[in-house]
Design brief:
globular
Length: about 375
């Protein structure tokens, strides 16, 4: 028996806008509203409005919340200041990546509170792992997935759009920071985070306020070229920005060191943490035998590579594509791939992708494909 996909608080609104809906990680989500290329370009040049309410929010509170998160995750959460956020990962005992996360510190020292945001498809896995790891700590792990709707305004005009409906100090809000405020009369956690490679904000609000906030942002954004955006352009935006996607660039078969993200593992923090031994071994292995490296590939032709396609040199398989799509910004097909260290240097010649038996030529480039102007 299959369960019906979950619907966000904005479901009826998406349908009224004519969105093409799709099942994503057990949720019915908007894939696109009209042209995914137009939505992508709007985020690069103006602003886009996204419903991200499928993401998994988990609240961690209690006197030992920081110590617990330091044990449960690979990052040093104890050094995160109030109002700041940190990108980190949760790993299995064997070092495999269970998920990549953003952790926001909301509470002062007297009342520690952290918001852990997991990917939609892994939210239950992360919740179960955190709950299991909380034993022995004076902390509470709370499933808050139903307590939040999440809207994102992304793009160079996002400050102008948001500032017209909030008196929060957006100029003082740094990247990877979050502050409580009011947006269009709605209480929100305003975070300067995103997954598009552009400046932007993610707004955590109560589900009953989501529709009113969406409409207010749509109205405020109209003079700035803001358009509603679906998951399809979110994927091409993050791909151009070289941002990893769980299930593609990150999996349980890889450690953070295999994924080129060893920097998120903080061995210097106090105390033990889950996976430490395996991750120390992975770090040592990476020094002596470099793992495959994550690189960008830009097509010479028009054929689009897809996840799972082989990267080849002289008939030999030297890697695998993890994500691929046409790039609206570059005007060419692009891919992210893990390739053998010997072929990971930008400009390496003779690299191709096996697309249905044809070895299509690709240029190896450094990630990201696209960097916004500061």
């Amino acid at each position: 028996m299959t369960t019906a996909p979950r619907r966000t608080a904005l479901d009826a609104l998406h349908r009224s806008l004519g969105a093409t809906m799709t099942d994503f990680a057990g949720w019915d989500m908007p894939l696109r509203y009209a042209s995914e290329r137009d939505e992508h370009n709007a985020v690069r040049t103006a602003a886009g409005l996204f419903d991200l309410s499928h993401m998994g929010e988990i609240t961690v509170t209690g006197p030992e919340a920081a110590d617990f998160l330091n044990f449960a995750l690979v990052g040093n959460i104890g050094t995160v200041a109030v109002g700041r956020a940190r990108y980190t990962m949760i790993c299995a005992e064997d070092g495999g990546i269970l998920d990549d996360l953003i952790v926001y510190r909301l509470g002062e020292a007297a009342a520690p509170e952290y918001l852990v945001v997991a990917n939609a498809g892994n939210a239950q896995i992360v919740l179960d792992a955190l709950t299991a790891r909380a034993g022995g700590f004076d902390t509470e792990v709370r499933d808050d997935r139903d307590a939040y709707a999440l809207l994102a305004v992304q793009g160079p005009a996002s400050v102008a759009v948001l500032s017209s409906v909030t008196d929060a100090d957006l100029d003082g809000l740094k990247y990877y920071a979050g502050l409580p405020g009011t947006v269009a009369g709605v209480p929100a956690l305003i975070a300067r985070t995103g997954y598009t490679g552009e400046d932007g904000f993610e707004l955590f609000v109560a589900p009953q306020h989501a529709e009113g906030l969406w409409k207010a942002l749509t109205e405020a954004g109209a003079p700035h070229g803001l358009v509603p955006c679906g998951l399809s352009c979110r994927d091409t935006l993050r791909l151009e920005a070289g941002m990893p996607l769980y299930g593609h660039e990150l999996t349980t078969a890889l450690t953070p060191f295999d994924a080129g993200l060893g920097r998120v593992v903080k061995f210097e923090k106090e105390g033990d943490f889950v996976g430490r031994e395996a991750l120390e071994a992975a770090a040592e292995r990476a020094e002596t035998t470099p793992p495959r490296k994550l690189v960008g590939l830009v097509a010479a032709g028009r054929r689009v590579p897809r996840a799972g396609y082989s990267v080849v040199v002289g008939g030999e398989v030297v890697g695998e594509v993890t994500s691929g799509a046409p790039s609206p910004t570059l005007g060419k097909p692009i891919a992210i791939a893990y390739v053998d260290d010997a072929y990971a240097t930008p400009g390496t010649e003779g690299v191709g992708v096996d697309i249905r038996g044809n070895h299509e030529p690709y240029e190896v480039v450094a990630l990201p494909f696209y960097k916004r102007r500061k």
